[in-house]
Amino acid sequence: MSTRAVSRARRRLFGEPERTAIDASRAALLVLTVAFAGVYATGTEPSLRTQMLVYLVGMVALNLPHGGYEHFSNLRRRGLPFGARYVGLYLAFVVGFVGVFVVAPMPALALAFGTAVAKGGNGDLHVMDALVGTDHLVSRPQRALAALVRGGAVMIVPAVAWTETFYGFTGYMLNVFDGSLVGPAASSPEAFTTALGAAYGLGVLLHLGGGLATGGGVTRSWVLDAAETLLLVGYFVFVPVVIAIGLYFPLWYSLRQSARSMVVEEARPSRTEGVSVVMAWGVLVVGALVTASVASALWLVAPNPLAGGSLLPGAVAFYTIFVCIIALPHVVVGEWLDFGRGIWYVP
After folding, report:
1. C-alpha span between 322 and 41 (Å, rounded)
2. Residue in 137, 139, 152 with CA at minimum distance from that of residue 203
3. CA–CA distance, 127 with 131 (Å, rounded to integer)
4. Structural contact between residues 150 and 344, judged by C-beta atoms closer than 8 angstroms
5. Distance CA 231, CA 59 (A)
6. What is the pLDDT of residues 237-248, one digit of tens each?
7. Pick from 306, 317, 297, 332: which is nearest to 71 by CA?
8. How far apart are alpha carbons 241 and 244 in whole angstroms?
9. pTM for this entry
């Protein structure tokens, strides 16, 4: 029986797993949003220690392996010369970004936050292309705004809703490299955050209003886009920022990217044939060793790996910096410079 025939039989028996994954991502964020809204209605709040533990479990145990899988899925069967250039560029960006953190921590952190916005937004846009629908996004500026709004929810909304905690952990992250907040974020954090939130709110209105105007009215793709966008905003408003970011990537980003991968492999199954278990295992082991090496090198060059604080907040700060450093080439090399396919490929 052919690969396509097996896939069709599986779908008839079990349904469409990629749709199930998308539904699960929505359900997970909705449940967390409602649950924490209920928690605050009772006047309680989880301790910061609990929040940091949830963050580390979500980001280290649940999400980090998916980043390696994205690269493996993108590189397999594309040949050694391409793979070597890809890895070389990736490592060059890592080294360069570490250097920027050493020399100018504040601009480097701003670039890192921008990378998180780009990763969340552009990744989500490609999931929409594959599974949700983007018929209402008829121009490149609309698509760019959609990515900015989706990704902006990850950084801008929690900065507005959880200003004190957000800036507190920003300070911890800067302390890893002896940096400190400067500019409007330091001199007038409330005013700066309010202006940022107002700009983001305008972006949401323009995104949803533009899609409604150019997409032919209230279409299915627009309704789903609006619902998911508002869900993301609500999630980052009600869920404490440390937990929200820690669980967003495994429960939303990674789960939805896995669903997109299922669609891609269904459309082009020949790309996955012929990859042995040993080869796949070897690639993932090498990737894990490289990742560990980057973390170790970062620990050695950082003046204050634990941000000069206690173990738990220091571990959160260090790991977040580490994730930021590997996320930049993840987006730039893994997607923007890979014109042939990219980590968010949709045929």
Report:
1. 35
2. 152
3. 6
4. no
5. 21
6. 999 999 999 999
7. 332
8. 5
9. 0.90
